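Session log. Operator J.P. requested a structure for one protein chain; no other inputs attached. Running the standard single-chain path with token output.
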Amino acid sequence: MKKIILSTLLLTTLFSFSQEHFSGINTSKRVGILNANVNPAELNNLTGTYEVNVFNFSTNVSNNKISFQDLLNGEDIENKFFTGSEPANFRLDAIIQGPAFAMKYKKWAFLINSAANIKVNAIDVDVNFGNAVTNSFLGTAQINSNYNQRMNAATWGEIGLGASRTLFENNFHKFNAGATFKLLFPGSYMNLGVDNLNGDITNIAGNVELSNANANVNFSYSGSLANNYQDSSNYSQLFAGGLNGLGIDFGFNYQLKEKIDEDLDEATKSKSGYRLNTGLSIRNIGSMKFNSDNNVSNNYTLEIQGFDSLNLNQFDGSESITEIEDVLISSGFLTKTSSNSDFKIKLPTVINAYADYHIHNKWYVSGYMQQKISDDSENDFTTIQNIYTLTPRFSGKHYEVFLPLSQNEVSNFTTGFGFRLGGFFMGSGSIVTALINDSTQADIYLGFRFAI
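Structure written below.
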């Protein structure tokens, strides 16, 4: 078990992935495919008639224990991870958006895009369990976890087909509705869930034993992540499973237009901009089915009674979830309750709401909310977190600078900085707090697109 937890930390350091991608620019007044990824109804607000996305990349890590300064100072990360009383959490997330194209035609707009997703998470790790396993001490610690501790990772690719329509428009108001249908290509998956673990851990000079214990245990894996969860190349299997899932995003958009001169021609009126742009969307409704040759989803009950104990040092050196499962099975303490060779993983469904207000001249301010409607404790889905962001912005036609201020469910408060110059943009939702205080999040994004 010690090796399991330490491996998660290594993965976190290696990938440095967050969960609001493109923070600050995703509600920009320069409307493009990034905005449509938050709300497909934004397609009818494209800055140009045509939009081409060349390449976008966003990667982020957030946690609730270890700060950016802790990593730079080389502090004892293992001990730091298990401080306090609340469970330890990591959320790692990366997205690569490849070629995409969008266009407007009369009251309609259309989109085709592509993306690859990587998620690696440690969810609700019991700090008492972690301290007992990783720290050499003389004594016994009681573990009473009434939640599901999970290690979870997933990779998949997707192709999106979107459409939106302007439902109503006059010189003052505009209403749009849109949807994006996602074709999902599951790559690889693994999940280790230990639910309601109760027991005693005895650690004497590094010899760690678990006794008087019971728990519900889930092992699920598919593809390359079953073989080695430390090898970064195993996270590159993004479209390996072929087309095997569907998802959908849908949303609504409202604009209160700027006051304009009635004598202007219609083309000029349509480019006059807005005083207020708002939207509401529900994203990531759907699931995907993993079905590689090594597919497994096994549920067990763990029970250790009497004078029996499980030697946790056996897990040192384990590099795969299958090795961990084999060790537990050979111990004789697991009883299988169910097994499936094919399993579905639900997407992390969220509600997005936002409003962008034109203050004066080139000054804007936007508010953004991401609210999950899924349960992190379930074994059959990937995770996402709740986020609230306020972004003041100075925005011209060919340039833009912005300062996102966010409250994140896992990493708490962060402040970032970003800019747009022509079709190129770059930013971070946490760079400011990472440099000036003990931020527990680090992220970066960049990309290039152009409108015609």
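Operator note: The chain has one domain: 2-451.
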